[in-house]
Amino acid sequence: MIRTSFFISLILVLGCAEGVKTFPTTGKVVYKADGKPFQGLIYFEAVKPPHTRSMAQTNVDGTFSLSTVKEGGGAVEGEQVVRIDVDQTDEAQIKDKAKNIHPKYLDFATSPLKVKVEAGKANNFTIELDRPGQK
Fold first, then answer.
1. 129 in Cβ contact with 99 (< 8 Å)
2. How far apart are CA 44 and CA 35, in angstroms?
3. Which domains does the chain have, with CATH numbers?
4. Model's pTM, two decimal places?
5. Can you say whether residue 58 is alpha, beta or left, with left for phi > 0 and alpha for psi between -120 and 50 degrees?
6. Per-residue pLDDT band at 106 (split at 50, 70, 90)
7. DSSP per-residue letters across 25-41
8. Rounded CA gap, 62 and 79, in Å?
9. What would the pLDDT profile of 74-86 be if each residue is shown by its tens digit?
């Protein structure tokens, strides 16, 4: 059920992205301080217009595979800003959001996380997060 609602959200967020060339994009989200995996949502937004977005729900071990138009399809080529959030269908995560995610990661405008998706490359990224209270 959670996966179904996730992909319905994906279709609503990315509905106009059909026909966009994407490249497989995978990785892992971990906390910098201890290497523990982050569970929640990860979004990539292309820096260049039309600012195409890709998203994924991380697995228990923090790994992810981004989707844009189709599940696991990846992200568009180019520099991407990365945003992190909790799983909006998990009440416990929503309640503990402030304990688990530094506020700077919650918005594309404030997130310092950037990656570059390249054609013909592996595009496997390790995203390291500061915990709340760390700079």
1. no
2. 21
3. 2-129 (2.60.40.1120)
4. 0.81
5. beta
6. very high
7. -EEEEEETTT-PBP-SE
8. 22
9. 999 999 999 999 8
What's the whole-number average pLDDT of the chain? 85
Q: Give which of 43, 48, 47, 58 is closest to 10, Cα–Cα.
A: 43
Enumerate helices (H) and strands (E) in the chain, giving the number of each.
Answer: 3, 9
* Residue 127: half-sphere exposure toward Cβ, Cα within 13 Å: 33
- pLDDT per residue as tens digits for the range 12-65: 444 444 578 999 999 999 999 999 999 999 999 999 999 999 999 999 999 999
The verdict on whether omega for the bond into residue 37 sits within 30 degrees of 0, i.e. cis, is no
Which sign does the torsion angle of CA 101, 103, 107, 111 carry? negative
CB 39 within 8 A of CB 28: no
Residue 118: CA count within 13 A, CB half-sphere: 7
